[in-house]
Write a structure and sequence with these properties.
It is a single chain. This protein is 77% helix and 0% strand. The chain is built from 8 helices and no strands.
């Protein structure tokens, strides 16, 4: 019981000590992540707002790879918003699976890009933890692109990202952000299961209709 009380007290302390920028960034980011898990199109504008604030926060903490990542996220959030609503020949995009061969190529590309970008940050900047930071960047880009296409497998990459990001951000004193990313890990696991079900529903609808199921186009 005392352990739970201590944990709650630490969360309250972290909240009161959290800078307004970090608090606002995490509120928008948390809303976007939860909406994405529910396959809700409003994930995109909340995500764009959150990523703008997160980019400013990471710049203050010398996580330069993550700053670049947030710029990418803002741009792709706007594109993803359009694709989910109109990406299937003017109709909402259905939830589908990525092919095994494509996933193998994506993973290989991700590992290579992580090594290359991490080496660049290590040699030419004062970045903190350049290789974990680069892994978060590279595999977040992969996850984002797959999410834009409404591929179920995007959640597997988000699980990997959150596994790396949680201890990384905690080590930089971003305690609230680290706690939220731990929550995002759980959300990604639940969302992966949810999207599997949505993909199965849309697969049944597609042979008889060109539009995805009602559940997969929540406004």
């Amino acid at each position: 019981m005392s352990g739970a009380l201590d944990f709650a007290a630490n969360i309250v302390t972290a909240l009161t000590a959290t800078a307004p920028l970090e608090l606002a960034a995490n509120i928008f980011t948390a809303a976007s992540i939860v909406l994405a898990g529910r396959n809700n199109v409003h994930t995109w504008w909340t995500g764009a707002a959150g990523c703008t604030l997160v980019g400013l926060l990471f710049a203050e903490n010398r996580l330069y790879a993550d700053v670049a990542l947030q710029v990418f996220f803002v741009a792709t959030s706007l594109l993803g918003w359009w694709k989910w609503l109109r990406g299937q020949h003017g109709r909402p995009l259905p939830v589908t699976h990525a092919g095994a061969a494509s996933l193998l190529r994506i993973v290989a590309l991700g590992v290579g890009a992580t090594a290359a970008y991490g080496a660049m940050l290590h040699h030419f900047t004062n970045a903190y933890a350049p290789f974990p930071d680069s892994a978060v960047l590279v595999f977040s880009i992969i996850g984002q692109v797959l999410m834009m296409q409404r591929r179920v497998e995007n959640w597997g990459f988000w699980l990997l990202v959150n596994t790396i990001a949680t201890p990384l951000y905690y080590s930089r004193g971003l305690h609230l952000t680290a706690v939220l990313y731990a929550g995002f890990w759980i959300n990604a696991l639940v969302s992966w299961r949810t999207w599997h079900k949505l993909a199965a529903q849309d697969a049944l609808v597609r042979p008889s209709s060109s539009s995805p199921s009602t559940e997969s186009i929540r406004p």
